[in-house]
Amino acid sequence: AVVRSQAVAIEKEVPESERPETFLREADGPSSGNAHHSAVRARFEKMIRDTQDAVCAAVEAADGGAKFKEDVWSRPGGGGGITRVLQDGAVFEKAGVNVSVVYGVMPPEAYRAAKGDANAKPGPIPFFAAGISSVLHPKNPFAPTLHFNYRYFETDAPKDTPGAPRQWWFGGGTDFTPAYIFEEDVKHFHSVQKQACDKFDPSFYPRFKKWCDDYFLVTHRGERRGLGGIFFDDLNDYDQEMLLSFSTECASSVIPAYIPIIERRKDTPFTDEHKAWQQLRRGRYVEFNLVYDRGTTFGLKTGGRIESILVSLPLTARWEYDHKPEEGSEEWKLLDACINPKDWIDLH
Amino acid sequence: AVVRSQAVAIEKEVPESERPETFLREADGPSSGNAHHSAVRARFEKMIRDTQDAVCAAVEAADGGAKFKEDVWSRPGGGGGITRVLQDGAVFEKAGVNVSVVYGVMPPEAYRAAKGDANAKPGPIPFFAAGISSVLHPKNPFAPTLHFNYRYFETDAPKDTPGAPRQWWFGGGTDFTPAYIFEEDVKHFHSVQKQACDKFDPSFYPRFKKWCDDYFLVTHRGERRGLGGIFFDDLNDYDQEMLLSFSTECASSVIPAYIPIIERRKDTPFTDEHKAWQQLRRGRYVEFNLVYDRGTTFGLKTGGRIESILVSLPLTARWEYDHKPEEGSEEWKLLDACINPKDWIDLH
């Protein structure tokens, strides 16, 4: 009698016993000899799957014992995903690394392109979306939580509107959420993001750092969930090849940005008070994800795979009434930095 | 540097050192000799404040040691509230009992009355809202969480629309959220709700029981957060005096419905597995409150007092990836009852 209802009727995912070589429909496949766009879809899928393998291997190595459990799923009309979760390890409380490849149909109002023929009204527009999404929650309160997500989105050209173009864009980011500030960690993390950005455009890091600070705001508290990183969305005003390379570079930067911090902090001794503060910050993380995060709220409302979407939530979280850290304490410093974002690379 | 930004600019609440006798504006006060509506406002405020006192006393007695902490606040233009929280007691993990009296202004589109003069367009409409809201989270996994909320809402008659009426309505409910089913507890709880309803209208219990089952749905999971109770909203199609008495009766029923269950379950021995399951159900509670609950989401978006709004969240919660209780287990039975609501009074 245990069943799931869905807010929106989309094809229900089905579990698969094996990882397919690709989730792309045949016409999009790497060997289809098809148009350029297929090549981008296929190359993006390969990039996110390689990233998933590499990040999972690095997390397992840092954990030193626990292994990821894998769930593969697909949808009858094409598309699917691989959800990997490591829970209750030696170092990680909960680590999720998901890839998904989704085919869908969007209402014409959501198609934002300048129309080729202003009088033609397009019907529903098929779209393609592929992405990797990951949240890594360590146990030690001095080791930060990491989130990253890189995605590629494409619409078909509307068939009934001659001249209206195919649309595509990239989105993503890498940000981290410590419960305590170690300046060398924050500086290292942001420096790696900046290096990845600077290879492509010197305006990227300052722009995407600010975008990240703006996006991860728990509005009702006036504080960010963490200490930022980079974030961008709807990016299509650069060369497509350049943005594919940029996304790839960002994804490759996850391990060097994060794993050295984990190695430094994973065995730091801590008290119950340190742990309780980390749990309170995890509560803020839950507030952000359930109330504001676009991917989460969109996924919950459109019948996405709930367990894949909510794997981002921490294993444990805490809400104390009216908790206020003592002014000047380490907890207060973290909170202050979440309220007033800093330039971590050039700290004054 | 620690400040709070607000999504909507409303007057910020200020802390008060003492409880005022009333939060009503002078013209609304019990001694103003004013119109009938003032009497309802004043009598409703007295009812919710008496209920707050009675429930807090009963919770403290059941806890056997811990005391509520009280925060009183007011807004410069009138209105205010009393937030009482008991945290980390012997029996209760977190118990919040809040009353608030709010004066505000609603956009004319929200004024739902048939207009007296169809051509007149009303300006912004002043409104009055008073309510009590409470969530009690016990520690023992066999003792259920309780929620109740009773509220009264009134608009002024639009001054610039002759003939358009003053509007008023009542809302509220009492529902409970066990992690494990004890049929005698569920039957007792629902029977007390039914008794309160039956004193006023035999249609109330079946109607408000179903309304409760429909409202507390965690839509993305297709399961309710708990085992229901009663819920009603926008109730104005009965005599106003009758609905005031009905709300009062429901509020008086909270203690006899709940405290006997707490007394029976508060010392039941339990294992780490029982506790982990309770924590998982608390995670669902958080999902409902942050994603769906109207009071919470409205409060977060309109700059209400955040700590009063989020006192409903449990002290601790847990999210495990893809947790599925074994078919036939006690955990499975609870989940099944959250998915398929039952008639608890006439169980077959």
Overview of this structure, please?
Two copies of one chain form a homodimer. Chain A is an alpha+beta fold and 348 residues long. The first copy, chain A, has nine helices and eleven strands. In chain A, the strands form two sheets. The first copy, chain A, has an eight-stranded antiparallel beta sheet. Chain A has a two-stranded antiparallel ribbon with strand order 8-9. In chain A, a hairpin with a 4-residue loop joins strand 2 (69-74) and strand 3. In chain A, helix 1 packs parallel to helix 5 (254-265). The radius of gyration of chain A is 21 Å and the shape is globular. At the A-B interface, helix 6, helix 7, strand 11 and helix 9 of A face helix 6, helix 7, strand 11 and helix 9 of B.
